[in-house]
Each structure stands twice: as C-alpha cells, then as structure tokens.
Amino acid sequence: TDKVSKISLVDLAGSERASGTGATGGRLKEGAAINKSLSALGNCISALADHHEVGATKKDKGKNFIPYRDSVLTWLLKESLGGNAKTIMIAALSPADINYEETLSTLRYADRAKQIVNAAVVNEDPNEKMIRELKEEVERLRALTAG
To answer: Which of 14, 83, 117, 131 has its CA at 20 to 30 Å from residue 108's CA atom?
Structure first.
C-alpha cells in the first residue's frame, strides 16, 4: 500500500533582541520580520495549548480560533502544529547569565508547545486502503470455504 509522510525541519533561530545584536538597516528589518513570525507562532502555540488544555469543554474549544494565517511561517507549519503530525521541538538554551531572559522565554515557549496534543494517524491512499481491505476479505472468505 502507498503510505505518505512529510517531514519539516525548521530552525527558529534569530529571535535575538534588536538592541543586543547591533543590527541596522536591512538586518534590523529582517530581524523584526523574524520576530513577528515567531510571535505569530507563539500565538498559534498558545491557542493550540489552550485548545488541548485538560478540562476545556467542547464549548470552550469551539471558541478557540487558531491564527494560522497571521504569518507565512504559521501557515506553512499548520499541519505540523495542530494537524495529523508528530512534532518535536528542541529548545536551545544558554547557560550564560547575560542570556537569562531569553533562555527563560525559550523555556516558556517550549513549555506551551509541550501542551499541544496531536492524534497522528497513518496517511494511506483511500483507494489503496479499499483495495487492501477487499483483498483481505477475499482471502478470509477463501479460507472459510476451503476449511
């Protein structure tokens, strides 16, 4: 049978504070755009974590809008974030005290992501699945008539 999968590897580095980088001009604009995308991703992660929170009622879950369209990054990661996927997030931390705030922010970000629960299932072509099931049924019926 044909089974389909997709892998997405995303490096979310680049969320440094503008004042700490000394960037100007184009680099500063690029950094701002990256931070805007990371902020949109954080909003999606928070909305998904709230959606999957233990004790959330169906009524609460229905109100929870996931803002995937707020950035290209979140739109591209939609299936990985809240869809039919197994997702792993690796948080890179710094032991240096100068990076304390950023490390704490990264840990909070990862903690929210950890609360997202996806129920991934095997992606199988529906036609292939039907053919496989029919072949299994034919074999089962042959075994019944032979025995």
So the answer is: 83
